[in-house]
């Protein structure tokens, strides 16, 4: 099902959307996706895990980060602070009892909820990889770009990285952001088997990984 939720934004609250399975059950899991292209690469795997969780008696909700996918907000206006506020609001709206943060989603998830963090990523690592990809693309096009100069530009003017128009506040936030994990269980990719889908060039299904993730969550919850 597709559900709407009131999301804070620079111009006030607006309706955003989440994919979910809501049968008003006791356990209600909010899934905070990773930002940027990793969200697209992992979405099918997460949705398949949600179907398995539904079969195990667990409700789940997967909202987009504001500015991403079908969001009505502009990506250039986003920041880690805005995403944190949005995910906290989504948790309240859907009555989440638990949370699963995926990769860079660990930088913005509502840390007061118990739950799981799948392969948490540091903001600096995400930023460094995207700047490196831009430098390589420029080199292949016969242009020279310097990583340090790009980062300095990003801090003050914002920067386009991998097709994303990142504002200065998002760049500055990513540069020093660390996952704030307080009691949530860290899940390694090895527990799911296979390579991480965020490493692939294109979105893909991974039914074994989806089943393993859902089984791990259900077992931890005693379902």
TrEMBL record:
It comes from the Bacteria. InterPro entries: AB_hydrolase_fold. This is Uncharacterized protein. It comes from Novosphingobium aromaticivorans (strain ATCC 700278 / DSM 12444 / CCUG 56034 / CIP 105152 / NBRC 16084 / F199).
């Amino acid at each position: 099902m597709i559900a709407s939720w009131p999301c804070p934004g620079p111009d006030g609250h607006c309706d955003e959307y989440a994919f979910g399975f809501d049968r008003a059950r006791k356990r209600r899991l909010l899934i905070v996706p990773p930002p940027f292209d990793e969200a697209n690469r992992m979405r099918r795997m997460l949705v398949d895990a949600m179907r398995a969780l539904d079969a195990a008696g667990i409700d789940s909700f997967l909202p987009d980060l504001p500015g991403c996918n079908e969001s009505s907000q502009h990506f250039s206006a986003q920041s880690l602070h805005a995403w944190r506020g949005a995910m906290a609001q989504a948790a309240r709206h859907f009555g989440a009892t638990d949370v699963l943060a995926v990769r860079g989603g660990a930088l913005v998830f509502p840390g007061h909820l118990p739950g799981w963090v799948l392969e948490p990523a540091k903001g600096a690592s995400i930023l460094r990889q995207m700047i490196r990809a831009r430098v390589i693309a420029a080199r292949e096009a016969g242009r020279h770009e310097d990583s340090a100069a790009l980062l300095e530009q990003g801090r003050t003017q914002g920067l386009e990285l991998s097709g994303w128009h990142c504002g200065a506040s998002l760049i500055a936030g990513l540069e020093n952001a660390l996952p704030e994990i307080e009691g949530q269980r860290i899940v390694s990719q090895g527990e799911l088997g296979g390579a991480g889908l965020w490493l692939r060039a294109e979105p893909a299904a991974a039914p074994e990984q989806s089943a393993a993730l859902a089984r791990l969550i259900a077992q931890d919850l005693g379902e």
